Amino acid sequence: MRWGVLAGAGIAKLFLESYDFKPKLQGFVGVFADIPLIDGFSFHPELTYRKYAFSKLEESKTKLNVVYNRQDFVLPLMLRYTLVSLKGKILPYMQLGAELGYALKNESASQYTTTDPDDFIVWTESGIIKHDKFGIAYTAGIGTEWKIRSNHSLFLDLRYCKETTKDYLTGYYAVVSFNL
What we know:
This protein is mainly beta. It has strands at residues 2-16, 19-20, 24-36, 41-58, 62-82, 90-103, 107-115, 121-130, 134-149, 152-163, 168-179. It is built from no helices and eleven strands. An eight-stranded antiparallel beta barrel has the order 1-3-4-5-6-9-10-11. The model has no long low-confidence stretch (mean pLDDT 85).
């Protein structure tokens, strides 16, 4: 069994209720384990802390400001297949699995402001947008393992992730891991 630390960053896009946020750079950090099963297959769980922040501002006579902040613990549970038959210092792999998420904060804010023709504020209304405390996502990726020493490796993978809820987050991430 191997274990280590990881860090990732990528472009994420959020679809929340009727709001379609623009893609934004997001990041995360965490720990992982890699548990060998049979002949190149391993179970690869991770525990990551992720913080997402999106905002949307529409410039019009009726202005809409929406701020979406989310902090999650995410538990990706993946099955990994490494091409061990190549027998070198660099080994490619593929992985597929599910991610279980727990939102540490599950509220975001919206604010509507109406102005008259001279841009004076006529009224302002604020609200809270609730989202799910628990979530499930699917993830898939490809990567390479570079064996630095017999018991230490550096991993680099590219992943796609999509939540399964009605209001969902999708993302493309690059992840760097190092087993200790």
